[in-house]
Protein backbone atom coordinates (compact mmCIF):
# COMPACT_ATOMS: atom_id res chain seq x y z
CA UNK A 1 0.00 0.00 0.00
CA UNK A 2 2.97 2.28 0.55
CA UNK A 3 3.75 2.21 -3.14
CA UNK A 4 0.41 3.77 -4.06
CA UNK A 5 1.85 6.62 -6.18
CA UNK A 6 3.53 4.21 -8.58
CA UNK A 7 0.38 2.13 -8.85
CA UNK A 8 -1.49 5.16 -10.08
CA UNK A 9 0.70 5.47 -13.15
CA UNK A 10 0.48 1.78 -14.01
CA UNK A 11 -1.70 0.48 -16.82
CA UNK A 12 -4.65 -1.80 -16.07
CA UNK A 13 -2.78 -4.72 -17.63
CA UNK A 14 0.21 -4.15 -15.36
CA UNK A 15 -2.08 -4.02 -12.35
CA UNK A 16 -3.69 -7.29 -13.41
CA UNK A 17 -0.27 -8.96 -13.50
CA UNK A 18 0.60 -7.52 -10.11
CA UNK A 19 -2.74 -8.54 -8.60
CA UNK A 20 -2.07 -12.12 -9.62
CA UNK A 21 1.10 -12.04 -7.55
CA UNK A 22 -0.03 -9.76 -4.75
CA UNK A 23 -3.65 -9.67 -3.60
CA UNK A 24 -3.28 -6.14 -2.20
CA UNK A 25 -2.55 -4.71 -5.63
CA UNK A 26 -6.07 -5.62 -6.68
CA UNK A 27 -7.24 -2.79 -4.49
CA UNK A 28 -5.97 -0.28 -7.06
CA UNK A 29 -7.99 -1.89 -9.81
CA UNK A 30 -11.07 -1.72 -7.58
CA UNK A 31 -10.33 1.90 -6.80
CA UNK A 32 -10.00 2.69 -10.51
CA UNK A 33 -13.26 1.05 -11.59
CA UNK A 34 -15.50 1.17 -8.53
CA UNK A 35 -17.16 4.57 -9.29
CA UNK A 36 -17.76 3.70 -12.95
CA UNK A 37 -19.23 0.27 -12.26
CA UNK A 38 -21.38 1.50 -9.39
CA UNK A 39 -22.78 4.25 -11.62
CA UNK A 40 -23.41 1.69 -14.37
CA UNK A 41 -25.30 -0.56 -11.92
CA UNK A 42 -27.45 2.38 -10.81
CA UNK A 43 -28.15 3.44 -14.37
CA UNK A 44 -29.16 0.05 -15.61
CA UNK A 45 -31.08 -1.38 -12.64
CA UNK A 46 -33.60 -0.20 -10.10
CA UNK A 47 -32.03 -1.91 -7.09
CA UNK A 48 -31.44 -0.15 -3.77
CA UNK A 49 -28.05 1.46 -2.90
CA UNK A 50 -27.34 -1.39 -0.46
CA UNK A 51 -28.05 -3.99 -3.11
CA UNK A 52 -25.89 -2.03 -5.56
CA UNK A 53 -22.99 -2.20 -3.09
CA UNK A 54 -23.47 -5.94 -2.68
CA UNK A 55 -23.63 -6.40 -6.43
CA UNK A 56 -20.50 -4.29 -6.85
CA UNK A 57 -18.71 -6.53 -4.36
CA UNK A 58 -19.82 -9.68 -6.21
CA UNK A 59 -18.65 -8.18 -9.50
CA UNK A 60 -15.15 -7.41 -8.20
CA UNK A 61 -14.84 -10.81 -6.55
CA UNK A 62 -15.75 -12.35 -9.89
CA UNK A 63 -13.21 -10.12 -11.64
CA UNK A 64 -10.56 -11.26 -9.17
CA UNK A 65 -11.41 -14.94 -9.53
CA UNK A 66 -11.20 -14.67 -13.32
CA UNK A 67 -8.06 -12.54 -13.58
CA UNK A 68 -6.25 -15.35 -15.39
CA UNK A 69 -8.98 -15.32 -18.00
CA UNK A 70 -8.41 -11.69 -18.96
CA UNK A 71 -7.57 -11.54 -22.63
CA UNK A 72 -5.04 -8.85 -23.44
CA UNK A 73 -6.67 -8.35 -26.83
CA UNK A 74 -9.51 -6.64 -24.98
CA UNK A 75 -9.42 -3.41 -23.01
CA UNK A 76 -9.51 -4.21 -19.32
CA UNK A 77 -12.38 -1.74 -18.87
CA UNK A 78 -14.47 -3.61 -21.49
CA UNK A 79 -13.76 -6.86 -19.69
CA UNK A 80 -14.84 -5.45 -16.32
CA UNK A 81 -17.98 -3.96 -17.85
CA UNK A 82 -18.72 -7.35 -19.43
CA UNK A 83 -18.49 -9.09 -16.08
CA UNK A 84 -20.63 -6.36 -14.53
CA UNK A 85 -23.19 -6.66 -17.31
CA UNK A 86 -23.39 -10.45 -16.94
CA UNK A 87 -23.68 -10.21 -13.19
CA UNK A 88 -26.47 -7.65 -13.52
CA UNK A 89 -28.31 -9.93 -15.92
CA UNK A 90 -27.90 -12.81 -13.43
CA UNK A 91 -29.34 -10.64 -10.67
CA UNK A 92 -32.17 -9.70 -13.01
CA UNK A 93 -32.96 -13.35 -13.51
CA UNK A 94 -33.01 -13.81 -9.75
CA UNK A 95 -34.83 -10.67 -8.72
CA UNK A 96 -36.51 -9.40 -11.90
CA UNK A 97 -35.28 -5.88 -11.17
CA UNK A 98 -33.30 -5.08 -14.27
CA UNK A 99 -35.64 -2.45 -15.68
CA UNK A 100 -34.66 1.05 -14.76
CA UNK A 101 -37.10 3.50 -13.24
CA UNK A 102 -37.06 7.25 -13.57
CA UNK A 103 -35.30 7.37 -10.22
CA UNK A 104 -32.40 5.33 -11.45
CA UNK A 105 -31.42 8.23 -13.69
CA UNK A 106 -32.09 10.74 -10.97
CA UNK A 107 -28.53 11.51 -10.05
CA UNK A 108 -27.76 15.12 -10.73
CA UNK A 109 -24.46 14.36 -12.41
CA UNK A 110 -26.37 12.47 -15.10
CA UNK A 111 -27.86 15.72 -16.35
CA UNK A 112 -24.67 16.52 -18.27
CA UNK A 113 -24.76 13.07 -19.83
CA UNK A 114 -28.41 13.56 -20.72
CA UNK A 115 -27.58 16.81 -22.48
CA UNK A 116 -24.80 15.03 -24.34
CA UNK A 117 -27.12 12.15 -25.16
CA UNK A 118 -29.80 14.47 -26.52
CA UNK A 119 -27.21 16.22 -28.65
CA UNK A 120 -25.60 13.08 -30.04
CA UNK A 121 -28.43 10.59 -30.08
CA UNK A 122 -31.02 12.90 -31.53
CA UNK A 123 -28.68 14.86 -33.79
CA UNK A 124 -29.66 18.24 -32.40
CA UNK A 125 -27.63 21.03 -30.95
CA UNK A 126 -28.67 21.13 -27.33
CA UNK A 127 -26.12 22.74 -25.11
CA UNK A 128 -28.59 23.36 -22.35
CA UNK A 129 -31.08 20.91 -20.94
CA UNK A 130 -33.60 22.10 -18.36
CA UNK A 131 -34.31 20.07 -15.26
CA UNK A 132 -37.86 19.47 -16.45
CA UNK A 133 -36.66 18.21 -19.82
CA UNK A 134 -33.96 16.13 -18.16
CA UNK A 135 -36.61 14.28 -16.17
CA UNK A 136 -38.67 13.71 -19.28
CA UNK A 137 -35.64 12.30 -21.09
CA UNK A 138 -34.94 10.04 -18.13
CA UNK A 139 -38.54 8.83 -18.15
CA UNK A 140 -38.37 8.17 -21.88
CA UNK A 141 -35.11 6.23 -21.47
CA UNK A 142 -36.58 4.18 -18.65
CA UNK A 143 -39.43 3.14 -20.95
CA UNK A 144 -37.12 1.70 -23.61
CA UNK A 145 -36.84 -2.09 -23.89
CA UNK A 146 -33.78 -3.39 -21.99
CA UNK A 147 -31.70 -4.24 -25.06
CA UNK A 148 -32.05 -0.69 -26.42
CA UNK A 149 -31.62 1.05 -23.08
CA UNK A 150 -28.41 -0.84 -22.29
CA UNK A 151 -26.72 0.10 -25.58
CA UNK A 152 -27.74 3.76 -25.21
CA UNK A 153 -26.45 3.83 -21.65
CA UNK A 154 -23.15 2.22 -22.65
CA UNK A 155 -22.74 4.52 -25.64
CA UNK A 156 -23.88 7.89 -24.30
CA UNK A 157 -23.58 7.60 -20.52
CA UNK A 158 -20.62 5.26 -20.11
CA UNK A 159 -18.97 6.78 -23.17
CA UNK A 160 -17.98 3.41 -24.68
CA UNK A 161 -17.05 3.06 -28.34
CA UNK A 162 -18.90 0.66 -30.66
CA UNK A 163 -15.99 -1.81 -30.47
CA UNK A 164 -16.01 -1.62 -26.66
CA UNK A 165 -19.79 -2.16 -26.52
CA UNK A 166 -19.31 -5.11 -28.87
CA UNK A 167 -16.76 -6.56 -26.42
CA UNK A 168 -18.97 -5.90 -23.40
CA UNK A 169 -22.17 -7.37 -24.81
CA UNK A 170 -20.37 -10.05 -26.88
CA UNK A 171 -22.18 -8.97 -30.03
CA UNK A 172 -20.70 -8.07 -33.44
CA UNK A 173 -19.94 -4.36 -33.86
CA UNK A 174 -22.39 -4.21 -36.78
CA UNK A 175 -25.16 -5.55 -34.56
CA UNK A 176 -24.29 -2.95 -31.92
CA UNK A 177 -24.54 -0.18 -34.52
CA UNK A 178 -27.94 -1.50 -35.64
CA UNK A 179 -29.14 -1.72 -32.04
CA UNK A 180 -28.04 1.86 -31.34
CA UNK A 181 -29.81 3.17 -34.44
CA UNK A 182 -33.00 1.31 -33.56
CA UNK A 183 -32.71 2.47 -29.95
CA UNK A 184 -32.42 6.09 -31.09
CA UNK A 185 -35.44 5.79 -33.32
CA UNK A 186 -37.45 4.12 -30.51
CA UNK A 187 -36.33 6.84 -28.16
CA UNK A 188 -37.54 9.52 -30.58
CA UNK A 189 -40.98 7.93 -30.65
CA UNK A 190 -41.16 7.69 -26.86
CA UNK A 191 -39.80 11.24 -26.52
CA UNK A 192 -42.68 12.50 -28.66
CA UNK A 193 -45.15 10.82 -26.35
CA UNK A 194 -43.42 12.55 -23.43
CA UNK A 195 -43.87 15.93 -25.13
CA UNK A 196 -40.22 16.42 -25.83
CA UNK A 197 -41.00 17.76 -29.30
CA UNK A 198 -39.15 20.95 -28.52
CA UNK A 199 -35.99 18.87 -28.24
CA UNK A 200 -36.53 16.79 -31.34
CA UNK B 1 -8.38 3.81 0.52
CA UNK B 2 -12.09 3.89 -0.27
CA UNK B 3 -14.45 2.07 2.07
CA UNK B 4 -15.86 -0.07 -0.71
CA UNK B 5 -12.43 -1.00 -2.02
CA UNK B 6 -11.30 -1.92 1.46
CA UNK B 7 -14.43 -3.95 2.12
CA UNK B 8 -14.08 -5.88 -1.14
CA UNK B 9 -10.41 -6.63 -0.52
CA UNK B 10 -11.24 -7.67 3.04
CA UNK B 11 -13.96 -10.02 1.78
CA UNK B 12 -11.53 -11.53 -0.75
CA UNK B 13 -9.03 -12.18 2.05
CA UNK B 14 -11.60 -13.50 4.55
CA UNK B 15 -13.15 -15.89 2.06
CA UNK B 16 -9.70 -16.88 0.87
CA UNK B 17 -10.72 -16.14 -2.72
CA UNK B 18 -8.03 -17.07 -5.22
CA UNK B 19 -7.90 -16.47 -8.97
CA UNK B 20 -8.81 -19.58 -10.92
CA UNK B 21 -5.70 -21.17 -12.44
CA UNK B 22 -4.83 -20.44 -16.06
CA UNK B 23 -5.09 -24.15 -16.87
CA UNK B 24 -8.84 -24.06 -16.13
CA UNK B 25 -9.40 -21.47 -18.86
CA UNK B 26 -6.97 -23.15 -21.22
CA UNK B 27 -8.86 -26.42 -20.80
CA UNK B 28 -12.20 -24.73 -21.43
CA UNK B 29 -10.82 -22.99 -24.52
CA UNK B 30 -9.37 -26.27 -25.82
CA UNK B 31 -12.68 -28.09 -25.32
CA UNK B 32 -14.57 -25.38 -27.23
CA UNK B 33 -12.12 -25.40 -30.17
CA UNK B 34 -12.04 -29.22 -30.21
CA UNK B 35 -15.83 -29.46 -30.37
CA UNK B 36 -15.86 -26.76 -33.05
CA UNK B 37 -13.37 -28.64 -35.25
CA UNK B 38 -15.10 -31.95 -34.55
CA UNK B 39 -18.36 -30.41 -35.78
CA UNK B 40 -16.59 -29.22 -38.93
CA UNK B 41 -15.08 -32.70 -39.41
CA UNK B 42 -18.44 -34.45 -39.04
CA UNK B 43 -19.97 -31.81 -41.31
CA UNK B 44 -17.23 -32.67 -43.82
CA UNK B 45 -18.13 -36.36 -43.62
CA UNK B 46 -21.80 -35.52 -44.22
CA UNK B 47 -20.76 -33.26 -47.07
CA UNK B 48 -18.54 -35.96 -48.60
CA UNK B 49 -21.36 -38.53 -48.55
CA UNK B 50 -23.76 -35.92 -49.98
CA UNK B 51 -21.27 -35.24 -52.80
CA UNK B 52 -20.93 -38.96 -53.38
CA UNK B 53 -24.71 -39.42 -53.58
CA UNK B 54 -25.13 -36.39 -55.83
CA UNK B 55 -22.38 -37.66 -58.11
CA UNK B 56 -24.04 -41.04 -58.38
CA UNK B 57 -27.68 -39.97 -58.27
CA UNK B 58 -29.90 -41.28 -60.99
CA UNK B 59 -30.20 -37.93 -62.77
CA UNK B 60 -31.27 -39.66 -65.95
CA UNK B 61 -34.60 -40.56 -64.34
CA UNK B 62 -35.63 -36.91 -64.79
CA UNK B 63 -37.66 -37.80 -67.89
CA UNK B 64 -39.80 -40.17 -65.81
CA UNK B 65 -40.69 -37.44 -63.32
CA UNK B 66 -42.00 -34.72 -65.60
CA UNK B 67 -45.23 -34.93 -63.58
CA UNK B 68 -43.54 -34.14 -60.26
CA UNK B 69 -40.31 -32.23 -59.93
CA UNK B 70 -40.54 -32.38 -56.12
CA UNK B 71 -40.61 -36.17 -56.22
CA UNK B 72 -37.56 -36.15 -58.47
CA UNK B 73 -35.76 -33.67 -56.20
CA UNK B 74 -36.48 -35.86 -53.16
CA UNK B 75 -35.00 -38.79 -55.03
CA UNK B 76 -31.74 -37.19 -56.13
CA UNK B 77 -31.01 -34.61 -53.40
CA UNK B 78 -29.24 -36.20 -50.43
CA UNK B 79 -31.54 -34.52 -47.90
CA UNK B 80 -30.50 -36.81 -45.05
CA UNK B 81 -26.86 -35.78 -45.32
CA UNK B 82 -27.65 -32.15 -45.96
CA UNK B 83 -29.67 -32.11 -42.73
CA UNK B 84 -26.66 -33.66 -40.99
CA UNK B 85 -24.42 -30.99 -42.50
CA UNK B 86 -26.76 -28.24 -41.27
CA UNK B 87 -26.93 -29.83 -37.82
CA UNK B 88 -23.15 -29.94 -37.48
CA UNK B 89 -22.93 -26.42 -38.87
CA UNK B 90 -25.29 -25.40 -36.05
CA UNK B 91 -22.94 -27.03 -33.51
CA UNK B 92 -19.93 -25.34 -35.10
CA UNK B 93 -21.71 -21.98 -34.93
CA UNK B 94 -22.68 -22.48 -31.29
CA UNK B 95 -19.15 -23.34 -30.20
CA UNK B 96 -17.41 -20.77 -32.37
CA UNK B 97 -19.54 -18.05 -30.76
CA UNK B 98 -18.22 -19.28 -27.42
CA UNK B 99 -14.59 -18.84 -28.36
CA UNK B 100 -12.74 -15.81 -26.99
CA UNK B 101 -13.46 -13.59 -29.97
CA UNK B 102 -16.20 -15.54 -31.74
CA UNK B 103 -18.85 -12.97 -30.87
CA UNK B 104 -17.12 -10.42 -33.10
CA UNK B 105 -18.29 -12.17 -36.25
CA UNK B 106 -21.76 -11.94 -37.71
CA UNK B 107 -23.91 -15.06 -37.64
CA UNK B 108 -24.08 -15.20 -41.42
CA UNK B 109 -20.26 -15.19 -41.70
CA UNK B 110 -19.78 -17.89 -39.09
CA UNK B 111 -22.40 -20.14 -40.67
CA UNK B 112 -21.20 -19.64 -44.23
CA UNK B 113 -17.57 -20.02 -43.10
CA UNK B 114 -18.40 -23.31 -41.36
CA UNK B 115 -20.24 -24.59 -44.44
CA UNK B 116 -17.33 -23.62 -46.71
CA UNK B 117 -14.89 -25.42 -44.37
CA UNK B 118 -17.15 -28.51 -44.40
CA UNK B 119 -17.33 -28.39 -48.20
CA UNK B 120 -13.54 -28.14 -48.49
CA UNK B 121 -13.12 -30.96 -45.94
CA UNK B 122 -15.87 -32.95 -47.67
CA UNK B 123 -14.18 -32.50 -51.04
CA UNK B 124 -10.95 -33.85 -49.60
CA UNK B 125 -12.68 -36.84 -47.95
CA UNK B 126 -14.54 -37.52 -51.19
CA UNK B 127 -11.27 -37.88 -53.06
CA UNK B 128 -10.06 -40.41 -50.48
CA UNK B 129 -13.03 -42.70 -51.24
CA UNK B 130 -14.22 -42.63 -47.64
CA UNK B 131 -17.90 -41.96 -48.41
CA UNK B 132 -18.03 -45.04 -50.63
CA UNK B 133 -17.06 -47.12 -47.59
CA UNK B 134 -19.12 -45.20 -45.04
CA UNK B 135 -22.46 -45.02 -46.82
CA UNK B 136 -23.05 -48.80 -46.93
CA UNK B 137 -22.09 -49.02 -43.25
CA UNK B 138 -24.78 -46.45 -42.44
CA UNK B 139 -27.22 -48.39 -44.60
CA UNK B 140 -26.51 -51.63 -42.79
CA UNK B 141 -26.17 -50.34 -39.24
CA UNK B 142 -28.65 -47.46 -38.98
CA UNK B 143 -32.27 -48.65 -39.31
CA UNK B 144 -33.59 -45.10 -39.68
CA UNK B 145 -31.24 -44.41 -42.58
CA UNK B 146 -32.16 -47.72 -44.19
CA UNK B 147 -35.86 -46.86 -43.85
CA UNK B 148 -35.20 -43.40 -45.32
CA UNK B 149 -33.41 -44.83 -48.33
CA UNK B 150 -36.12 -47.49 -48.77
CA UNK B 151 -38.75 -44.75 -48.84
CA UNK B 152 -36.84 -43.08 -51.66
CA UNK B 153 -36.91 -46.32 -53.59
CA UNK B 154 -40.71 -46.36 -53.59
CA UNK B 155 -40.57 -44.29 -56.76
CA UNK B 156 -39.76 -47.60 -58.40
CA UNK B 157 -43.32 -48.68 -57.87
CA UNK B 158 -44.55 -46.53 -60.75
CA UNK B 159 -44.92 -48.81 -63.80
CA UNK B 160 -47.14 -46.24 -65.50
CA UNK B 161 -44.19 -43.81 -65.33
CA UNK B 162 -41.89 -46.49 -66.69
CA UNK B 163 -40.29 -47.43 -63.35
CA UNK B 164 -40.54 -50.89 -61.89
CA UNK B 165 -38.55 -52.83 -59.29
CA UNK B 166 -38.69 -56.28 -57.87
CA UNK B 167 -37.11 -59.69 -57.52
CA UNK B 168 -36.55 -62.11 -60.40
CA UNK B 169 -38.68 -65.17 -59.72
CA UNK B 170 -38.28 -67.06 -62.98
CA UNK B 171 -36.12 -67.06 -66.11
CA UNK B 172 -38.86 -67.77 -68.62
CA UNK B 173 -36.50 -67.66 -71.62
CA UNK B 174 -33.52 -65.72 -72.88
CA UNK B 175 -36.01 -63.02 -73.89
CA UNK B 176 -38.30 -62.95 -70.90
CA UNK B 177 -38.13 -63.04 -67.13
CA UNK B 178 -40.79 -62.98 -64.43
CA UNK B 179 -40.47 -60.64 -61.49
CA UNK B 180 -42.39 -60.02 -58.28
CA UNK B 181 -42.62 -56.25 -57.71
CA UNK B 182 -42.37 -54.43 -54.38
CA UNK B 183 -46.12 -54.79 -53.83
CA UNK B 184 -46.22 -58.52 -54.56
CA UNK B 185 -47.55 -58.28 -58.12
CA UNK B 186 -46.07 -60.46 -60.84
CA UNK B 187 -44.82 -59.09 -64.15
CA UNK B 188 -43.48 -60.69 -67.29
CA UNK B 189 -40.61 -58.55 -68.42
CA UNK B 190 -39.40 -58.44 -72.00
CA UNK B 191 -35.60 -58.19 -71.96
CA UNK B 192 -34.77 -58.45 -75.64
CA UNK B 193 -33.36 -54.94 -76.12
CA UNK B 194 -32.30 -54.31 -72.56
CA UNK B 195 -29.13 -52.75 -71.27
CA UNK B 196 -27.97 -54.46 -68.08
CA UNK B 197 -26.09 -52.03 -65.85
CA UNK B 198 -23.69 -52.65 -63.04
CA UNK B 199 -22.26 -55.91 -64.37
CA UNK B 200 -25.53 -57.63 -63.52
CA UNK B 201 -26.07 -61.22 -64.40
CA UNK B 202 -29.69 -62.31 -64.38
CA UNK B 203 -30.37 -64.82 -61.64
CA UNK B 204 -33.29 -66.03 -59.58
CA UNK B 205 -33.92 -63.87 -56.49
CA UNK B 206 -31.84 -61.01 -57.88
CA UNK B 207 -33.40 -57.65 -56.96
CA UNK B 208 -33.45 -55.23 -59.85
CA UNK B 209 -34.75 -51.86 -60.98
CA UNK B 210 -36.24 -51.68 -64.44
CA UNK B 211 -36.77 -48.76 -66.79
CA UNK B 212 -39.16 -49.23 -69.67
CA UNK B 213 -42.88 -49.20 -70.37
CA UNK B 214 -45.91 -51.33 -69.65
CA UNK B 215 -47.24 -53.80 -72.17
CA UNK B 216 -50.74 -54.95 -71.40
CA UNK B 217 -51.89 -55.54 -67.85
CA UNK B 218 -48.93 -57.45 -66.42
CA UNK B 219 -46.30 -57.10 -69.08
CA UNK B 220 -43.34 -54.73 -69.08
CA UNK B 221 -40.79 -53.98 -71.78
CA UNK B 222 -37.43 -53.28 -70.18
CA UNK B 223 -35.06 -50.84 -71.86
CA UNK B 224 -32.63 -50.83 -68.97
CA UNK B 225 -32.08 -52.91 -65.85
CA UNK B 226 -30.11 -51.68 -62.82
CA UNK B 227 -29.06 -53.38 -59.60
CA UNK B 228 -31.50 -52.80 -56.74
CA UNK B 229 -28.94 -51.43 -54.33
CA UNK B 230 -26.29 -49.13 -55.41
CA UNK B 231 -26.19 -46.27 -57.75
CA UNK B 232 -23.92 -45.34 -60.58
CA UNK B 233 -20.70 -46.43 -58.90
CA UNK B 234 -21.98 -49.93 -58.66
CA UNK B 235 -23.96 -49.94 -61.84
CA UNK B 236 -21.59 -48.89 -64.48
CA UNK B 237 -22.68 -50.61 -67.63
CA UNK B 238 -20.76 -53.66 -68.50
CA UNK B 239 -18.78 -52.74 -71.54
CA UNK B 240 -17.59 -55.00 -74.25
CA UNK B 241 -14.27 -54.78 -76.03
CA UNK B 242 -15.39 -52.01 -78.29
CA UNK B 243 -16.51 -49.96 -75.37
CA UNK B 244 -20.16 -50.57 -76.23
CA UNK B 245 -22.62 -51.70 -73.64
CA UNK B 246 -23.08 -55.39 -73.88
CA UNK B 247 -26.49 -56.97 -73.59
CA UNK B 248 -25.75 -60.12 -71.69
CA UNK B 249 -29.01 -61.79 -72.55
CA UNK B 250 -29.29 -60.78 -76.15
CA UNK B 251 -29.34 -63.91 -78.29
CA UNK B 252 -26.10 -64.24 -80.20
Describe this structure in words.
The complex is a heterodimer of chains A (200) and B (252). With 200 residues, chain A is mostly helical. Chain A folds into two domains: 1-98, Rna Polymerase Sigma Factor, Chain: A; 101-200, Butyryl-CoA Dehydrogenase, subunit A, domain 3. Chain A is built from ten helices and no strands. The model of chain A has no long low-confidence stretch (mean pLDDT 82). Chain B has 252 residues and is an alpha+beta fold. Chain B folds into two domains: 22-141, no CATH class; 155-234, OB fold (Dihydrolipoamide Acetyltransferase, E2P), CATH 2.40.50.140. Helices cover 46% and strands 17% of the residues of chain B. Chain B has seven helices and seven strands; from the N terminus they run H-H-H-H-H-H-H-E-E-E-E-E-E-E. Chain B has helices at residues 3-14, 22-55, 69-76, 79-97, 107-128, 130-141, 143-152, and strands at 157-158, 163-171, 176-181, 186-190, 195-196, 207-215, 219-227. A five-stranded mixed barrel of chain B has the order 2-3-4-7-6. In chain B, helix 2 packs across helix 5. The radius of gyration of chain B is 28 Å and the shape is rod-shaped. Mean pLDDT of chain B is 85; it is low at 231-252. Chain A binds chain B through residues 1, 20, 23-24, 26-27, 30-31, 34, 38, 53, 56-57, 60-61, 64-69, 71, 73, 166, 170-175, and chain B through 1-2, 4-9, 11-13, 15, 17-22, 24-25, 100-101, 103-106.
What is this structure's SSE topology?
The complex is a heterodimer of chains A (200) and B (252).
Chain A (H helix, E strand, L loop, with lengths): L3 H6 L2 H10 L4 H19 L4 H17 L10 H20 L14 H12 L9 H13 L2 H12 L4 H8 L3 H21 L7
Helix pairs in contact in A: 2-3, 3-4, 3-5, 4-5, 5-9, 6-7, 8-10, 9-10
Chain B lengths: L2 H12 L7 H34 L13 H8 L2 H19 L9 H22 L1 H12 L1 H10 L4 E2 L4 E9 L4 E6 L4 E5 L4 E2 L10 E9 L3 E9 L25
Parallel strand pairs in B: 4-7, 5-7
Antiparallel strand pairs in B: 1-2, 2-3, 2-6, 3-4, 6-7
Amino acid sequence: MDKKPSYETMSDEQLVQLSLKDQNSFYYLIERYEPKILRYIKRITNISPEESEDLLQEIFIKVYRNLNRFNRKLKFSSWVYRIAHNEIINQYRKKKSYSATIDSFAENDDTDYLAGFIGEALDIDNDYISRENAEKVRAALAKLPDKYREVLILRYFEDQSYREISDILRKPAGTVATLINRAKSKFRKIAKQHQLENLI
Amino acid sequence: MTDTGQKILQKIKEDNVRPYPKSRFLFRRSVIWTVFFLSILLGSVACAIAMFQLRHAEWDLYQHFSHSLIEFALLVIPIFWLIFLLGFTGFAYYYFRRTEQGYRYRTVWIISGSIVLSIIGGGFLYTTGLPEKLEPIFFDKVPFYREWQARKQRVWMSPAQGLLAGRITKMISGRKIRIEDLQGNYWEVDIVDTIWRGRLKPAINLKIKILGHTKGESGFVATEIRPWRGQGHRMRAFKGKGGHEKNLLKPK
